Amino acid sequence: MTMYFTEKDSLRYGKFTCFDAFPFVKAVFSTRIGGVSEAPYDQLNMGITTEDKKENIEENRKRFFESVGIDKNLIVIQKQVHETRSEYVSKPAFLDCTDAAFTDQPNIFLTVSAADCVPVLFVEPQKKIVGVIHAGWRGTEQGITNKTIENVKHQFNIDATSIVAVIGPSISVKHYEVSDDVANRFDREFVVRDGYSKPHLDLWKANEAQLKKAGVGNVFISEYCTMEHRDLFFSHRGSGGRSGRMLGVIGII
Predict the structure, then answer these.
(1) Fewer Cβ atoms within 10 Å of its own Cβ: the N or the C terminal residue of the chain?
(2) Rounded CA separation 186/38 (Å)
């Protein structure tokens, strides 16, 4: 079991067993359960760029961060743009045009927003480094996951064998139909054509491969598909393009 869930204050959020061995880390992943937003953003929409009412999003974020015991003034928010820029952060901030962030500073909580795209959370326990990555098909094609880990290795002069990474809830290959144009951008090992009328892309496998290429020693996949589990998670594709967002959060305490 890679992921398990906790209910508190009418909210449900996930944790990852692979991080339980690290008491200096707090890592949580929101679900759609427990907020105030109305359909199609019901209930716990955390997405600041969605068309949901601003006051609902703010109330949802307030409830979530209070429930998990994180000061919302200590978070790092990314304006994710499906590219490959990763950034080291040393204080709470709003990062414009990044899709990955990492830090070795305590009391800073990195966030990654998702609703089908792959969220990656990782920990390097020896030097106490944590990070997040947002990888849709565009970012995956451009190698964001590999590039981010390489940046971490360069920044801290480490190898990646001790890094523990988890691929969080996101769309599975079973439900991720893509065009031939998109499929042709990827190696064949990440594209499934048999049994489908159009190609399907395996973002889990593709990002796992990038983590391992960068030398990451421990990679876990939550295996929760956002499309299949729409009662628990938001799915952009499953809702026809209008949905809320979950939030993955990780920090050093």
Answers:
(1) N
(2) 38
Residue 50 pLDDT > 90 = yes
- Output the pTM of the full model: 0.97
**Cβ neighbourhood burial of 228 (10 Å; 0-12, 13-18, 19+):** middle
CB 215 within 8 A of CB 150: no
* Cα(85)–Cα(104) distance, integer angstroms: 18
| pLDDT single digits (tens) 202-233 | 999 999 999 999 999 999 999 999 999 999 99
Domain that holds residue 147: 3-252
Amino acid identity, position 23: P
Angle between helices 203-213 and 144-156 (to 10 degrees): 30
Record the tokens describing residue 51, joined without a space.
């068309």
* CATH number, domain containing residue 137: 3.60.140.10
User: 115-156, pLDDT tens digit by residue?
Assistant: 999 999 999 999 999 999 999 999 999 999 999 999 999 999
Number of structural domains (the chain) is 1
Mean pLDDT estimate for the chain = 97
Alpha-carbon distance 152 to 149, whole Å? 5
Q: How far are the Cα atoms of 87, 146, 173, 174, 199 from residue 184, in angstroms, in the given order?
A: 30, 20, 15, 18, 9
Q: Which two tokens stand for residue 167?
A: 């691929």
